[in-house]
Amino acid sequence: MSLAATFQSLVIAFAPFYILRGYIPLPILNLNIPTTLLEVLIILSLVSTFVGYLKSKDNLKVFRTKFDRLILLFLFASFISIFFSPDFIGGIGIFRAYFLEPILFYYALVYETRKVGYGFVINSLVVSGLILSLIAIIQKFSGLLVFAPHELEQGRVSGVYNSANSLALYLGPISILSLSIFLKLKNNFKFLYLGLFLLNVLILLWTRSRGGLAAEAGAVLIMVYGILSVSSDFKIKFVKIRTEVFRRLWVFIPILFILFTTFFYTQIYQIYSTYPQYIAAHEVKGDTLHIRYLIWKSTIEMLKDSPLFGAGLDGFKSAYEQIYKPSIFPEQFQYPHNLILTFWVETGILGLIAFLLLIYKVYFLLMKNIFKTKDPYLGIALIAIMTYWMIHGLVDVPYFKNDLSLEFWVVLALISGFLENK
Q1: Cβ neighbours of residue 392 under 8 Å, at least 6 residues apart?
Q2: For residues 88 and 412, what is the distance between their CA atoms, to the nearest angstrom?
Q3: TM segments (predicted)?
Q4: Which of 53, 168, 363, 366 is the S-S candidate for 209 at Cβ 3.0 to 4.6 Å?
């Protein structure tokens, strides 16, 4: 494995350890630039990739992918959002950590996987998930290595994070990859990946993240449906079912998701728009869905005042605190606990459109090519991972963190490799 691929493996495997922070001193400018272990590893991987590229004398075309135009639009939208942020320096930091560096890493990863394959990427993600799972086990049974005491007091594990939901957000997609490898392999090593999948699911159960568990259930259903789609024709109670039927019905999965989303938010609105009566009737206390409803309501008011540019990068928190925070619930929040609302309020309508178009193109290309490639199980897993993010994104934000933004672009690099591996 090349030096660049080695650094890339380290970046992926240790992405959750962005929590290790420090400063790079610049005495000439009298500045200390904040950084993380993850950022240092990303920079080393980018430098090694660039050096390898110069030595190879390859054409710049080796970096091109099917998503370049949308990525450029997405990057441009996030960049201009800096100038609408109430915290310009904070906006630059968010742009650097959540957009620029992960996207550059995406292209470096695409370049390397075209030379050596994407197996090391998948295994690095699996190792990352294993590290978090082992830490969670230690937390559960010994009370050691606890990063979020308030979560452990409630019986929830959180890995290296300050929130159990953060662990679920990161670990869910990795569990699906482990399941896809189990389905693909024909030797006894497959059972190792089955064990890793079951371990990841156990940790998800211990997080008690309702959004994570719902997303995992949805992703596993996609995997089961995918298995039926790639298997030979089979019989259920003497009725022969043709695999082709399942393949043709893939197009209805996005439609079902849209219907589910509409039903979900309709029910939330009907319940919580009359919350005082609801809570009196059901004696509900500490209802996190009610908290989210209040945040969403405030965010929508914020977007009504600035529909084009939102609050700017790193702008939601201050705008929410100063103007839009409901008096009934004074807790502080970094983001509005919804993927769509967060992209809109942080990157403006242009950033949201770019993101949604990117997701649409990913789904379209995967569903178009899933049965034309050498590894249909990986293709199914990638669709399931995207679905996991969309479902969990109904109540949380599976992007706006150092590790989550990196995981998103690593998976997109896998998607690029999958689409080329026909």
Answers
A1: 168, 169, 172, 211, 212, 214, 215, 398
A2: 29
A3: 37-55, 67-84, 90-109, 116-139, 159-182, 189-206, 212-228, 249-268, 339-364, 376-392
A4: 168
SS3 assignment for the chain: CCHHHHHHHHHHHCHHHHHCEEEEEECCCCEEEEEEHHHHHHHHHHHHHHHHHHHHCCCHHHHCCCCHHHHHHHHHHHHHHHHHCCCHHHHHHHHHHHHHHHHHHHHHHHHHHHHHCCHHHHHHHHHHHHHHHHHHHHHHHHCCCCCCHHHHHCCCCCCCCCCHHHHHHHHHHHHHHHHHHHHHCCCCCHHHHHHHHHHHHHHHHHHCCHHHHHHHHHHHHHHHHHHHHHCCCEEECCEEECHHHHHHHHHHHHHHHHHHHHHHHHHHHHHHCCHHHHHHHHCCCCCHHHHHHHHHHHHHHHHHHCCCCCCCCCCHHHHHHHHHCCCCCCCCCCCCCCHHHHHHHHHHHHHHHHHHHHHHHHHHHHHHHCCCCCCHHHHHHHHHHHHHHHHHCCCCCCCCCHHHHHHHHHHHHHHHHHHHCC
